[in-house]
Structure formats: structure tokens, C-alpha cells
Design a protein that fits this description.
114 residues, 3 helices, globular
């Protein structure tokens, strides 16, 4: 399965963008790596998944890829990465959240030329 790997230096993480149309293949690929999913997710527009204790995330967008799905999944991605790194959501962390969310959404918008 093809992935595009994004290495982010601030938190020293990797985000694997899964480049596959068929979610059932994506699910099998991730489950073989230990990821667990609740429900069938067949109607999912995208997913973000990680394993506890591992500083890697997987993200997938259903085609056709639209901006709202990227924003939605990047919200999950941003929250999970910040939580993993001990950054709580609070008023005094608002700028960290905003800039990090901007980073990921802009990266995927550029990748998909949206």
C-alpha cells in the first residue's frame, strides 16, 4: 500500500498519508499493524489512527477529497498529537492549537492541490 510520509520536526513525529481509494484495504492494512476500529466505518470520509505509545499517525481521506474532510481529520490529528505530547486544550495553549492545525491543513491542501 502506498503512503506519503510527512516528518514533522517540532514533535519529532511521522504522519503517514495513505494513498488508497478502498477503505476496506486501508482497514486491513492498519489492523495488521495493531490498529483497532469500532464499527464498520464504511461511510467514513476519512480517518486518523495511531497506536498508543508510538509517535506515528496514519491519515486517510476518501476520494473525492474535499477541504471540509481535510479540516475535520486534521482537527483529530492536531488534537491527538498535542495530547500525546502533553499539551492540553486551554486558553493559554490556543495559539499552539491554531498554528499546528494551520500547519497540517495547509500541508494537505497543497499536497492535493486544493
Amino acid at each position: 500500500m502506498k503512503n506519503k510520509v510527512f516528518c514533522e520536526q517540532i514533535f519529532d513525529i511521522k504522519v503517514f498519508l495513505i494513498l488508497e481509494k478502498d477503505f476496506s484495504k486501508v482497514r486491513k492494512y492498519l489492523e495488521k499493524r495493531g490498529h483497532i476500529f469500532d464499527g464498520d466505518l464504511n461511510d467514513a470520509e476519512g480517518i486518523v489512527s495511531s497506536l498508543e505509545g508510538i509517535n506515528e499517525w496514519y491519515i486517510w481521506f476518501k476520494k473525492p477529497i474535499v477541504r471540509k474532510t481535510i479540516i475535520h481529520e486534521c482537527t483529530h490529528l492536531t488534537r491527538q498529537i498535542l495530547n500525546y505530547n502533553g499539551i492540553d486544550f486551554s486558553d493559554d495553549q490556543d495559539e499552539v492549537l491554531s498554528y499546528y492545525m494551520e500547519y497540517w491543513t495547509e500541508l494537505f491542501f497543497k499536497f492535493y492541490k486544493l
